[in-house]
Amino acid sequence: MQHRRLRDLEVSALGLGCMGMSDFYGPRDEAQSIRTIHRALELGISFLDTADMYGPFTNEELVGRAIRDRRDRVVLATKFGNVRGEDGAFLGIRGDPEYVRQACDASLRRLGTDHIDLYYQHRVDTQVPIEDTVGAMAELVASGKVLHVGLSEAAPETIRRANAVHPIAALQTEYSLWSREPEEELIPVCRELGIGFVPYSPLGRGFLTGQIRTPEDLAPDDFRRSNPRFQGDNFARNLELVETVRALAAEKGVTPAQLALAWVLAQGEDLVPIPGTRSAERLEENAGAVDVALSAAELARLEEAFPVGAAAGDRYANMSTVNR
Prior knowledge:
By secondary structure, this protein is an alpha/beta fold. The chain contains ten helices and eleven strands.
């Protein structure tokens, strides 16, 4: 497995998003998920991504159990800021210093570790100056509880203000062939400031794999059923986009998922995508993307088919908490 750097943090070139192991994407199988995490480490995929809100709370516990006897082989990232109740209810966003400290201590307990390698603010709290939130995160760094600080779904000016308080190692934001908007401002700002970029949902929430052909392919409780891009006419229009990926992948003898991930990896050495999966088989497939080289002509073909804004529908049913 190749390696890349998020500012001063060295990580595997491909990470593993663990969210779907506990929440949002249908049935869960903890034993299978732990086997998948262990297989990731065997393959050299050492960058694991979780958050306190996933489950809620149970995903951190799952990841903690999976890595308990191999913590030294893991670059562990988690997040705070999206507040949920024990019943799963969404209770808003918090970034006040007291909450930052409380959330970090709670995550450390659930993860069963004494430090978090990369700690993100999951969503920006517009009621709290970003300087106050990042100031509290900097205190966690000074205490040794956190090694590197990150942001998620933050706007360019927010990133600048945050980075002035403490170096930001990474910005995590949705980015893929069908979510290319970060190219306009976010990625340039990150590169100007020396901040790494971590694309989540680099497979378009699974759509770009070509495995989702109808909404009925999704479990009844899969949150994608309520996602605008997976509904009605949007679904049909987005399915047409995926045909370009399927066709080019077939020509190259790779899978659509490998092609879509290879495209993200080709956008710069400062990008580290974190595709999520519960399956060791899918994990192995995704890992193969690091060895897929795309020619200039192939990149041009994909970029022509997927210009910024090509996907039909918003990324979320409620876009009010992103890019703030």
